[in-house]
Structure formats: structure tokens, C-alpha cells
Design goal:
Length: about 240
């Protein structure tokens, strides 16, 4: 059962806040809330669909580890971000792993509850499509930024995405991002050394402050300006 603080968090989620009151009540009534320890899997690539999830506290690494132990990270899901809906739509097994990077509190809307809701209200598919297209939009934006932006712009943009919960937050309330430099390097497909240099530069500009496995954003406006600066052209 969701407590008062978790309910408030849920209502700051862009997708949830846009749902009709009945759908909100249905999710609250049927949701399971549980805790997972660091590295205790929620689901793995290849697992069957068992519901959709939201992060209430902590952080979830969405990615994959290959047979050689090499890790690829697509996103770090933090409060309050929904994930796991892709397999509902395409009826295929999970496409990636979802593993906590620290102790986390998770909300799950189980598969049977979703199926029941969709059978009774087929129009709810529209809201599932919203969740999926939200991620697709950010995936396309990331692909475009890879080709058009330098690393400092891409880093600033990714930090903005994370503060905004990849479009999940109605407003930015939290200015701290819990992430290691190694994870940031994986997300941006560059070396840890490059990320460290970029973060040091932003620290000198008083845009942010780096601590152990976390980044405090000091100047949101300046970070936004760097992320949306026009790319420099070669002369």
C-alpha cells in the first residue's frame, strides 16, 4: 500500500497526473509496493512480462550485461519514472535488465491487473502508448545529439533529462543526481576520464558540485543553456 509521501510523489509524475481519476484510483488500489536491495534484480532480459513498474525511491539501472560481463546502460530510472511497458505492447520477452544500483522502493502494477483494466477500458491503451512514445522520443533525441553535439552539450543534456526524470516529472524538485562517473560514461558512450574532465569544467563554472556517486546541480539555468547551445561550426 502506498503511503502519503509516495502518493504525493506519484501525483508529481507527468503520466500519472494526466490520467482520469478512475485510472489513478485503479492503479493505487492494485499496485504492489516492495523494496529491492542493491543488485537484486527486478527483471532480466528474456524474462516474460509481469507488469509495469515505477521507482518510488532509489535508482534502477536499465541495460544489459553480455556473456563477457560487459555492461551497457541505456538509462538510470529514478523517482518517479515508469518502466517495463515495452513487453506489454509487443508481447515479447523483456528487452533489457532492470537492476537497482542501491536499495530501492518499487511500485508494480501486475500483469493481471493491467490486462483486466485493458479488457474493461480498451482506451487505456492510449495511455500505455504515451508511456512508450515518451521513451522513444528521448531515444531519438539521444541519437540526434550523438551526431550533432559535443560531449559537454551531451553531458549537460543528459543531466537535464535525469533531473526531469526523462519527461516523467511535472516539475523539477530534486537537484541531486545519484550516479557514478562510470555510469555516466556508459550512458554517454565515452571514457570515464572524459566525463571527469567535463565535470571538473562544469564545477569550475559553478554549474554543479561533484561528490561520491552523486552530482548536485547548482545552476539549473546555466546547465540548460549549455545543453541547448548551438553547435559550433568549423571554419
Amino acid at each position: 500500500m502506498l503511503n502519503a509521501q509516495q502518493l504525493t510523489q506519484l501525483k508529481n509524475n507527468y503520466w500519472f497526473a494526466g490520467l482520469a481519476e478512475y485510472f489513478q484510483h485503479y492503479i493505487i488500489q492494485h499496485a504492489l509496493v516492495f523494496e529491492k536491495d542493491k543488485e537484486q534484480r527486478i527483471f532480466l532480459s528474456g524474462d516474460p512480462f509481469d507488469g509495469i513498474y515505477a521507482v518510488l525511491d532509489g535508482a534502477i539501472r536499465l541495460g544489459h550485461i553480455d556473456i563477457h560481463g560487459k555492461e551497457a546502460v541505456a538509462a538510470i530510472a529514478e523517482p518517479i519514472m515508469w518502466f517495463g511497458e515495452i513487453s506489454l505492447v509487443d508481447k515479447l520477452p523483456r528487452s533489457h535488465d532492470a537492476i537497482p544500483t542501491r536499495k530501492s522502493t518499487i511500485l508494480q502494477l501486475p500483469a493481471h491487473a493491467i490486462q483486466q483494466l485493458l479488457e474493461q477500458y480498451p482506451e487505456f491503451w492510449y495511455h500505455i502508448a504515451q508511456l512508450t512514445s515518451q521513451k522513444l522520443r528521448y531515444a531519438f533525441m539521444e541519437l540526434i545529439s550523438l551526431q550533432t553535439q559535443n560531449l559537454s552539450q551531451r553531458l549537460a543534456q543528459r543531466l537535464m533529462y535525469m533531473l526531469n526524470g526523462y519527461g516523467n516529472h511535472l516539475e523539477i524538485q530534486q537537484r541531486t543526481i545519484q550516479i557514478s562517473q562510470e555510469q555516466l560514461a556508459q550512458l554517454l558512450m565515452c571514457s570515464r576520464q572524459s566525463i571527469n574532465q567535463e565535470l571538473q569544467q562544469l564545477e569550475k563554472m559553478n554549474v554543479l558540485k561533484v561528490a561520491f556517486k552523486k552530482i548536485d546541480i547548482l545552476d539549473l539555468q546555466q546547465l540548460h543553456q549549455i545543453a541547448h547551445a548551438l553547435p559550433a561550426h568549423d571554419h
